[in-house]
Amino acid sequence: MIDITAEISGVKLETCVFNAAGPKDATLKELEVIAKSASSAITMKSCTLEPRKGNPEPRYCDLPEGSINSSGLPNLGYKEYVRFSSLLKKYHKPVVASVSGLKLADNVKIIKVFNNSEADLIELNLSCPNVPGKPQVCYDFEQSEEVLDAITDVCKKPLGVKLAPYFDFAHFEQMAGILRKRKLAFITCINSIGNALVIDPDKESAVIKPKGGFGGLGGKYVKYTALANVRKFHELLPHVPIIGCGGIYSGKDAFEFILAGATAVQLGTVFIQEGPSCFGRIQKELKDYLKKKGYETLEDFRGKLKTLD
Ligand code: IRO
What angle do CA 64, 70, 75 make, to 5 degrees? Predict the structure, then answer.
């Protein structure tokens, strides 16, 4: 028997593969599709205090190897996701609430209500690239400290943070230093790579409407950046579980993330492009790959990446 279960802060996952916050997870109908799929948890769309329509369409575009989006945080408002977390309990899977308030006071208010909800894990999104006029919090280290101090103070559930990719070792170290001082149940690496620009040369136009065409890049284009972020944070914070996200399309991709140090992986763009069958397919591919390698559990190889020096 190949065991690909995972555990995050006492929350057991039947497999290490589930959905990422964002794609097709804003309505109860969409969440029920995830609940009925092989996804091992149900992650809900990042929520704000008030409902939001999001940015003007077109705000998402499939690309040959991934996606670009500038959805702009469309969601039903946190109260609905608190309600959904109880309604989804009947599927007997962990429910992950994603919180992305537009200001610190909003996050505090939302988290306080989720404290008394059926959500199992809370992922604080510090990395949304697509709200006009709102820079990504996790690129501002002072603000990140302030937010994390306030949130870790009030949050009674296992709390994780979702980070944008970093590209410089000094920045990894700075963020790791901040995270090390706070009690975190997990880190999710990475959000989409913010403010990419995709151009249609025939139309001589950007492919999405908001922000002059700038949006978050996802899918295969970001896999190697995501792997680097998982690896670096695993090296710097070896005791914090990391959820890898970014360009996972196959069981082998999932294997690479776990080898880099991830505890679990989330699927984003592949779920949009393939639909809910991606969860079972990637879980099966991962199991088959472990079998081929003679591994029985994820612990057999987690974090054991070899380097050439
Ligand atoms: O535009 C979005 O809604 C969005 C969010 I909150 C995020 O965290 N990442 C992303 O790529 N899009």
Answer: 120
Q: Select from 43, 46, 139, 193 the residue to mutate for testing ligand 1; criterion: most ligand atoms less than 8 Å from CB.
A: 46
The 10 Å Cβ neighbour count of residue 120 is 22
pLDDT in tens, 191-222: 999 999 999 999 999 999 999 999 999 999 99
Residue nearest to atom 8 of ligand 1 (CA): 128
**β 242-245/186-189 pair status:** parallel
What's the gap in Å between 119 CA and the centre of ligand 1? 20
Helices (H), the chain: 28-36, 78-87, 104-114, 141-154, 169-180, 223-236, 251-260, 269-274, 277-293
Residue 297 is classified by DSSP as B
**pTM exceeds 0.90 for this model:** yes
Q: Are 279 and 37 in contact (CB under 8 A)?
A: yes
- Please, are residues 263 and 306 in contact by the beta-carbon 8 Å criterion? no
**In this structure, what DSSP letter does residue 56 have?**
P
CA of 210 to the centre of ligand 1 (A): 13
Substitution site in 45, 192, 198, 209 for ligand 1 pocket (most atoms within 8 Å of beta carbon): 192
pLDDT digits (tens, 9 = 90+) for 134-165: 999 999 999 999 999 999 999 999 999 999 99
Contacts of 38 (CB under 8 A, 6+ apart): 15, 17, 276, 279, 280, 283
